[in-house]
Write a structure and sequence with these properties.
This protein is α/β, with parallel strands linked by helices and about 210 residues long. About 25% of the residues lie in helices and about 25% in strands. A hairpin with a 2-residue loop joins strand 10 and strand 11. The protein is globular. The N terminus is likely disordered.
Length: about 210
Amino acid sequence: RNRQKGRGGGYVRNRRRTMRCAVIVAGGKSARYGKNKLQEQILGKTVLERSVEVFLPICDSVVVVGETVQGTIFAPSGETRFSSVKNGLEMVPRGCKTVAIHDAARPFVSRELALKLFKEAEKFGSAVPRLPVTDTIWRQVDDITTKADRSEYFSVQTPQAFDFARLTEAINSASGTYTDESSLYFDFYGEVHFTEGSANNIKITNFGDLPQY
């Protein structure tokens, strides 16, 4: 398999199909966790290693924001997640058609889900995994509390895959900040393609979220 060095020193795999890339966001401070959660061990590998290894065999290039990982391209982290993603996109090699943005704190993402998202983004321009809300939802505005209909709500996960050119245009034109790329993409293009996510694709946020083996 032919490989060539991309910008930043990482390797790019040459393939005939549409060029797929990933940006792994690993520049957070883990403030709620209490220590660097990306270095926590899961069966002999770190959280970060498990998140990255899902994408290496299926992507032409992988950019990691905030951490140096062998076989990937380094990008500096920003002050916010939004700025970190922007930095990561700037390091994606030319020719990328579809890019997946993934939070490194989701180490249980499956390769099957990532591949599904790439394929659907290549068809629809975007692909965002979602899950129905299963807990009872209450809404509070000032001093008024009301019970919400949970059937009207769903949560989204990463990875989120997009047409690279369209996502880059949106992020470079944005005047504010966003907590994820689906919100940004929707604001700029008025549509997002959602697809079924995975209950196993949990995000490590607070101390105790990591399963014990």
